[in-house]
Design brief:
One of its GO terms (cellular component) is endomembrane system. Helix 1 (about 20-45) packs antiparallel against helix 2 (about 50-75), helix 6 runs parallel beside helix 10 (about 305-325) and helix 9 (about 275-300) runs antiparallel to helix 10 (about 305-325). Helices cover about 75% and strands about 0% of the residues. It is mainly α. The protein has two domains: about 1-165, Ferritin (Up-down Bundle); about 170-325, no CATH class.
């Protein structure tokens, strides 16, 4: 929602102590090992060789975790601070493995390449931030190990899915396009389309004045766009997550939020109330289905689930606005 500008703050990566950096690395390796084990179990029936590769990758992540824990013990003792990805601003996030159970091998490959790119980027940034020579060497070695894992993930498709092999540069370019433009743009479109439904239609049914309704819708869309744009830009500088320029992401999020809100506000430029309202409802219908389509195409969300979530949720917000305005 647009008010996520005031959501719970996260720590800046630059503010982490060397102990906290090690703790973050430990928890991240634990999570990645679990994800690779889940991939292995999913692939084992159809791709047993690929499953073995993911088993090996999980074992390597576990060995990384043990190395990091040993370093933490030597420098800071046995008590490891609880710090995870979601506690750090701009840090890459992992999708829960239960969302991956139905993914084909080439999609898992894409996710794995992204994971290893992000882990390598983290270790390089972490190594640059610590001063202890042994810790810096360990983090640099782990960055090189994660880079080697990335090459292994790319090789999976060449061995087991040759028909889906694409040029590596074009694959990275598409993934970067999704991270920089599609994800923040989709979040903005959803926010603008759904969060402005209730105030616009409540104002419409309360006043039955198309001019006032348009002005309320315009202010809601512009305000939400500015809020979402600044939130996206300030939330993540892109250096650790690899999501690209914060300015580009802020523009994508802000503009699409505004577009989502203006879509059902513009019909109220029509002077006749019921004509404007019917047109606005039709626009809402197409907005919600467009969001479901984008989620399915770029975010790998099953279309029926996306449609159910977006259309049902949007319909409930629309109905709430009408009921509130009519009351």
């Amino acid at each position: 929602m647009a008010f996520n500008l005031f959501s719970r703050p996260r720590r800046a990566f630059s503010s982490l102590s060397e102990q906290e950096i090690l703790a973050l690395a430990i928890s991240s390796e634990e999570d990645d090992a679990r994800i690779y084990k889940s991939y292995a179990e999913h692939l084992r029936p159809e791709y047993p060789d690929s499953a073995k590769i993911f088993d090996d990758m999980a074992m390597v992540e576990d060995s990384h975790r043990r190395m990091l824990i040993d370093m933490h013990k030597r420098r800071f003792g046995d008590v490891i601070p609880l710090i995870r990805r979601e506690h750090v601003r701009g840090f890459y996030e992992r999708r829960p493995d239960w969302l991956m159970k139905s993914l084909p091998l080439d999609k898992i490959r894409d996710q794995t390449v992204t994971m290893e790119e992000q882990a390598c980027r983290f270790y390089r940034a972490a190594a640059a931030q610590v001063s202890d020579a042994d810790t810096r060497k360990l983090l640099g070695d782990l960055a090189m190990a994660e880079e080697a894992h990335e090459e292994t993930a790319v090789a999976l498709s060449e061995k087991h899915a040759p028909e889906d092999v694409r040029d590596e540069e074009s694959m990275k370019e598409r993934r970067q396009f999704v991270l920089t433009w599609v994800q923040p743009g989709l979040a903005g479109l959803m926010d603008g389309s759904v969060s402005t439904l209730a105030p616009i239609f409540a104002a419409a049914f309360a006043t039955q004045d198309t001019k006032q309704t348009f002005l309320i819708g315009l202010s809601a869309a512009v305000g939400a766009g500015i809020s979402m744009g600044f939130t996206e830009a300030a939330h993540d500088d892109g250096k650790l997550s690899g999501r690209g320029s914060p300015i580009k992401r802020g523009i994508a999020s802000g503009v699409m939020t505004m577009v989502g809100g203006l879509g059902h506000a513009l019909p109220y430029l029509i002077p006749e109330f019921w004509t404007a309202t019917i047109v606005a409802i039709i626009v809402v219908f197409f907005e919600l289905w467009a969001i479901a389509f984008i989620q399915n195409k770029y975010m790998e969300t099953p279309f029926m689930r996306a449609a159910f979530q977006v259309v049902l949720g949007g319909g409930l917000v629309l109905a709430a606005g009408m009921l509130i305005g009519s009351g």
